[in-house]
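Page 37, continued from 36.
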């Protein structure tokens, strides 16, 4: 995490320490970024933590079309 992203690092650390299944964030630059998921998981594993699923609120919204499927 970049220095200015200390809040993001704390968000991820707390979610990992509390063994959350999902962590919801609007931060697509650092946290909910598919290009960084593997790296985040590797770093977390090095310190003995599991990484929660990192998603945006939009990924959790159920649409009417999805309900019919």
């Amino acid at each position: 995490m970049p220095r200015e992203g200390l809040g993001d690092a704390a968000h991820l650390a707390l979610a990992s320490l509390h063994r959350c299944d999902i962590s919801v964030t609007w931060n697509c630059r650092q946290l909910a970024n598919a290009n960084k998921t593997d790296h985040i998981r590797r770093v977390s594993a090095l310190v003995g933590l599991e990484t929660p699923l990192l998603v945006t609120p939009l990924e959790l919204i159920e649409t009417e079309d999805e309900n019919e499927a």
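Helices lie at 6-17, 37-46, 57-60, 64-68. Flag for discussion at group meeting. Residues 6-17 form the longest helix (12 residues).
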